[in-house]
C-alpha cells in the first residue's frame, strides 16, 4: 500500500485542490448567528501541524427546517434562465401569529405551486408545508428558499400538520378567502446589475467543489493564476467552432511520407473542407474566501481582457522561435483581477463529480461585485458576535502564542498570505523576455556577520560600520 503524502500547512498552494494534512486542533469554537443566538452559523478552529504552523479553518453549517404557512402573496415567475432548475418564484407565507416571511421556490417546486393554483382557481386557502427548506437569517429577519432536491412541498395535502394548521387558521380568521386575491407582478427589463443579482443563484466556491445539480450560477472571486498543465488555446473549426483533430494521411501503404489533415466531428462539417483558427480556452484558478476552483475562460470573454486574438499571440511566440504552447506573457494581465463569474454546471460535471466549469460571462463592475458579496452575506447570515462560544481548547505550552499567529498574519513559522505566497511559489513560466537585475556592490552584506538580518523584528542595515570604519562589505565565499 502506497504511503500517503502529507503536506505541511506552509506548503499549501491555491493552484491545487486536494491535500492530505496531519494536524492537531488546538482551539475549537462555535460561531453564532446575529439574528438568532441559538443557531450555530459555523464551527471554527485553529489547526497546527508538526512544524508549528497554524491556520484557521471554518466549517459552515446549513440550516434546514420544516416550514408551514398560508400563501398571502405571489410574485412573478422568473423563467429567463436556460436551466429550468434556476427558474424562481417569490412569494410570502404567514403563520398563525401573523408573521410573514419571504420565500423563494426554485425549479420544479416553483412549477408545482403554479400548476396547483391553475388547477384549483376556486380554492379557499393555500397552505404549503415545505420539508427541509433552507433558512437564512440576517439582522433578525428570516427568509426561506427551497434547496435543490432536498426540499419537498405539500400543498393543501391531507396531512396532520396541514389539517391542524388549517383548523386553527379558520378558528382565528374565519372563512375569508385571501388566496383568491393573489396577483402576478408585471414583467420588467433587466440591466447587467439586475441580471447578475436576480437571475442566478450566488454561490461560494466551496459549494461547487462537489457539484450536485445542473444549472448556471454566479461566483465572486479573484484570478490567482493559470494552470499550465492545460493548453491555453485550441484549434477551432472555422465552420462550427468545435475543436478539430489532426490525422496523418499517408500517400501509400509502404510510403513513409505523410501529410497532416484536419478533421471535425461536427454534424454540419461532413464532406466539407476543414480549416481551423486558434481560440482562447484559458484554465484560470479563481479563489474566494471559501476555496479555489478552475474555470475556463473562452475566446470572446478572454479577448475582452487581453485585447489581442489568440492567433496574434501565437504568431508573436513563433516569431521569437518558441513553442506556441508556452503561456504568453500577455496573459499575465489576468492575474489578481476580481470578477463576478457566470458559470455553467452541466450534467458531465454532476455525474462525474468534475469541478472544472466553463464561464458564460463575467463582470468587473465593482457595484455588482459589492452587491453580490452582500447578498452572499445575507444568505449565509451576518458575521458572528464577538463573544463566540468556545467549545474546546487545548493549551500547547505555557508559552503558547496568541491568536495573532493565524494565517492572516506574517512572521516566523506562519503560512504566508495568499497573494504573497502566489508570488513566491507560483510554478508558472511565462514566455517573456529575460530581465537582468543589477545590484550595487555596496548593497551586499554578509548575513553571517549581522545578527539582526535574520531577526523578524529588526531591520537589516546596509553599509554598516564595522570596527568603526566605513567601507565595502566583502561577500563571504563558500568553500
Blueprint of the fold:
Elements: E1 24-32, E2 40-48, E3 54-60, E4 64-74, E5 88-94, E6 100-106, H1 107-119, E7 127-138, E8 141-145, E9 152-155, H2 160-173, H3 192-198, E10 201-202, E11 215-226, E12 233-237, E13 245-250, E14 258-263, E15 276-287, E16 292-298, H4 299-306, H5 310-319, E17 338-345, H6 347-351, E18 356-363, H7 366-380, E19 389-393, H8 418-425
Parallel strand pairs: 6-8, 10-11, 16-18
Antiparallel strand pairs: 1-2, 1-19, 2-3, 4-5, 4-7, 5-6, 7-8, 7-9, 11-15, 11-17, 12-15, 13-14, 15-16, 17-18
Helix pairs in contact: 3-7
Protein architecture, described:
This protein is an alpha+beta fold. The protein folds into 3 domains: 9-62 and 381-415, no CATH class; 66-185, Nucleic acid-binding proteins (OB fold (Dihydrolipoamide Acetyltransferase, E2P)); 202-377, Nucleic acid-binding proteins (OB fold (Dihydrolipoamide Acetyltransferase, E2P), Beta Barrel), CATH 2.40.50. It has 8 helices and 19 strands. It has helices at 107-119, 160-173, 192-198, 299-306, 310-319, 347-351, 366-380, 418-425, and strands spanning 24-32, 40-48, 54-60, 64-74, 88-94, 100-106, 127-138, 141-145, 152-155, 201-202, 215-226, 233-237, 245-250, 258-263, 276-287, 292-298, 338-345, 356-363, 389-393. It has a 5-stranded mixed β-barrel with strand order 4-5-6-8-7. A 5-stranded mixed beta barrel has the order 11-15-16-18-17. A 4-stranded antiparallel sheet has the order 3-2-1-19, with no helix packed on it. Helix 3 (192-198) runs parallel beside helix 7. InterPro entries: NA-bd_OB-fold (IPR012340), Rep_factor-A_C (IPR013955). It comes from Lactuca saligna. This is Replication factor A C-terminal domain-containing protein.
Amino acid at each position: 500500500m502506497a504511503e500517503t503524502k502529507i503536506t505541511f500547512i506552509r506548503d499549501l498552494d491555491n493552484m491545487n485542490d486536494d491535500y492530505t494534512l496531519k494536524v492537531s486542533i488546538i482551539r475549537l469554537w462555535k460561531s453564532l448567528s446575529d439574528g438568532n443566538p441559538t443557531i450555530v452559523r459555523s464551527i471554527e478552529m485553529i489547526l497546527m501541524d508538526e512544524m508549528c504552523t497554524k491556520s484557521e479553518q471554518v466549517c459552515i453549517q446549513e440550516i434546514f427546517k420544516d416550514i408551514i404557512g398560508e400563501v398571502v402573496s405571489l410574485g412573478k415567475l422568473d423563467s429567463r434562465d436556460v436551466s429550468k432548475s434556476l427558474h424562481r418564484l417569490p412569494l410570502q407565507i404567514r403563520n398563525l401569529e401573523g408573521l410573514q416571511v419571504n420565500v423563494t421556490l426554485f425549479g420544479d417546486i416553483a412549477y408545482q405551486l403554479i400548476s396547483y393554483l391553475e388547477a384549483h382557481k376556486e380554492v379557499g386557502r393555500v397552505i404549503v408545508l415545505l420539508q427541509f427548506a433552507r433558512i437564512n437569517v440576517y439582522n433578525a429577519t428570516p427568509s426561506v428558499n427551497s434547496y435543490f432536491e432536498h426540499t419537498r412541498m405539500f400543498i393543501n395535502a391531507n396531512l396532520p400538520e396541514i389539517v391542524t394548521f388549517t383548523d386553527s387558521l379558520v378558528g382565528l380568521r374565519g372563512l375569508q378567502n385571501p388566496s383568491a386575491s393573489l396577483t402576478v407582478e408585471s414583467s420588467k427589463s433587466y440591466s447587467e446589475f439586475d441580471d447578475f443579482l436576480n437571475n442566478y443563484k450566488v454561490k461560494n466556491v466551496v459549494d461547487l467543489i462537489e457539484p450536485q445539480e445542473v444549472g448556471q450560477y454566479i461566483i465572486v472571486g479573484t484570478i490567482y493564476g493559470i494552470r499550465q498543465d492545460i493548453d491555453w488555446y485550441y484549434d477551432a473549426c472555422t465552420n462550427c467552432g468545435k475543436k478539430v483533430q489532426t490525422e496523418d494521411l499517408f500517400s501509400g501503404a509502404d510510403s513513409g511520407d505523410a501529410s497532416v489533415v484536419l478533421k471535425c466531428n461536427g454534424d454540419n462539417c461532413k464532406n466539407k473542407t476543414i480549416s481551423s483558427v486558434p481560440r482562447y480556452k484559458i484554465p484560470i484558478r479563481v479563489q474566494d474566501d471559501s476555496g479555489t476552483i478552475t474555470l475556463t475562460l473562452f475566446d470572446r470573454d478572454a479577448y475582452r481582457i487581453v485585447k489581442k486574438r489568440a492567433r496574434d499571440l501565437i504568431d508573436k511566440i513563433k516569431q521569437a522561435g518558441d513553442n506556441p504552447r508556452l503561456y504568453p506573457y500577455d496573459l499575465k494581465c489576468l492575474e489578481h483581477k476580481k470578477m463576478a463569474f457566470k458559470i455553467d454546471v452541466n450534467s458531465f460535471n454532476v455525474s462525474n463529480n468534475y469541478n472544472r466549469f466553463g464561464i458564460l460571462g463575467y463582470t468587473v463592475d465593482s457595484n455588482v461585485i459589492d452587491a453580490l458579496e452582500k447578498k452572499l452575506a445575507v444568505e449565509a447570515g451576518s458575521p458572528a458576535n464577538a463573544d463566540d462560544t468556545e467549545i474546546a481548547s487545548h493549551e500547547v505550552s505555557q508559552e503558547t502564542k496568541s491568536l495573532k499567529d493565524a494565517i492572516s498574519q506574517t512572521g516566523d513559522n506562519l503560512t504566508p498570505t495568499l497573494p504573497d505566497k502566489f508570488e513566491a511559489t507560483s510554478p508558472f513560466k511565462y514566455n517573456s523576455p529575460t530581465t537582468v537585475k543589477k545590484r550595487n556592490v555596496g548593497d551586499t552584506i554578509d548575513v553571517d556577520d549581522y545578527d539582526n538580518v535574520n531577526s523578524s523584528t529588526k531591520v537589516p542595515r546596509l553599509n554598516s560600520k564595522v570596527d568603526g570604519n566605513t567601507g565595502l562589505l566583502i561577500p563571504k565565499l563558500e568553500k
